[in-house]
């Protein structure tokens, strides 16, 4: 029981901590609406499963055959954040993902953006690896590891879906519509800066 409480506490502290995932959800929700934010939340949760799969099945393989994997992950993640950040800064208006014939494409793009943001987030990778190797330990059964992985993924989805719903409430949406250009620039700048910080840490590390 104590281990379960520890895992849950560590997971939720990591989930609610501000970072690229949070900014990306704010971006998707502000630019494209609630459904896009929820789609991005599902993408983030799926990205977590990517890290869980590595922690359970591929960590030893990566350490043996691809020791520079973390470097590649950091560089790719930094480049992706800068790319999305610049695109967001250049976006001058909002797009309603609920309306229009391209709704499915927009929701799929939001899901992909959420997935890429989390899957390329080296901090999430380190968190999941540390959780499985140091907190759970090698004696934990595969079934229990899969349950923990599912819990971590579901926790990300629940939190970020909640954030998306909150940011697209009537009051918040009215504010976003009035200040679309400023919000786009703020979110774009935040994503770009996060990407540059990741790149700088990799260069200095």
Describe, in plain words, how this protein is organized in 3D.
With 205 residues, the chain is an all-alpha fold. The protein has helices at 2-16, 20-32, 34-65, 69-90, 103-119, 122-136, 142-167, 170-178, 180-204. Helix 2 runs antiparallel to helix 5 (103-119). The radius of gyration is 18 Å and the shape is globular. 39% of the residues are buried.
Describe the secondary structure blueprint for this structure.
Elements: H1 2-16, H2 20-32, H3 34-65, H4 69-90, H5 103-119, H6 122-136, H7 142-167, H8 170-178, H9 180-204
Short description:
With 205 residues, the protein is mainly α. It has nine helices and no strands. The chain is globular and about 55 Å long.
